[in-house]
Write a structure and sequence with these properties.
The chain has helices at 7-29, 40-63, 67-96, 101-144, 153-180, 184-217, 222-247, 261-283. It is an all-alpha fold. The protein folds into two domains: 7-125, Alpha-catenin/vinculin-like (Four Helix Bundle (Hemerythrin (Met), subunit A), Up-down Bundle), CATH 1.20.120.230; 147-259, Alpha-catenin/vinculin-like (Four Helix Bundle (Hemerythrin (Met), subunit A), Up-down Bundle), CATH 1.20.120. Helix 1 packs antiparallel against helix 4, helix 5 (153-180) runs antiparallel to helix 6 (184-217) and helix 6 runs antiparallel to helix 7 (222-247). The longest helix has 44 residues, at 101-144.
Amino acid sequence: MPVFHTKIIESILEPVAQQVSRLVILHEEAEDGNAMPDLARPVQAVSLAVNNLVKVGHETIESSDDVILRHDMPGALHRVETAATLLQQASDMLRADPYSGPARKKLIEGSRGILQGTSALLLCFDESEVRKIVKECKKVLDYLGVAEVIDTMEDLVQFLRDISPALSRAAREVAARASELTHPPHAEILTQCLESVKQLAPVLICSMKIYIHILTEGGKGMEEAAENRNYLAQRMADEIHEIIRVLQLTSYVEDGGEKDNITVLKALQSQIHTKIGAAHEFLN
């Protein structure tokens, strides 16, 4: 089971985790009453690993128009900066007194804060990137929503001009996201759904042409043509909704299903609603 759900997060957080692990190991080795060694170099290594990340975080806040990111990221940055300060204080205190209990406490608190803060920082940025992709997917859904009211070739041409670039952008970003995921089942779902959308798109356009032709010429089968068009549009919409669902997963359980915490809670809520009537009857 991968620890990090994207390769980017893994590549950034893994070196930080390794540096922090060194500090924790040094602490554990000194727990039997031995003096702590000089932590100046390992603490400096941790600081170097997070300083650039903090700088990029501040730059991201300034340049982003994502309201949620601008609200959440400062807290994660503050946690990382505070933790780095704790580590530096622990290093200075232990240099003066290698047996200092308060210094060791600061060391553990700082190590934990570095990992938690860095993880929160990366997840905040990652969730913002996901929201961008979801936004592109929803644009395609909006266009699919008007497919059933297109009844002239002129409208169909405009529909194609609108949906084609939106679909291309969404497909490109979803494919890139799939290649970044470290959990293969999630990546496979995105890839499969995207492939289905690509296959359905030209078939949908063809069905829309057939409907318009029958409508214009006054031929038979207009109702069937409309049903076929609507069915294909709904198929595409369903695939895109599934893409959006999987994009928003950041954890999973290996029980044959792809369930994050929100999915589990929704399932429990549904079960409660289905049983509440019987419960009321029993109580009455």
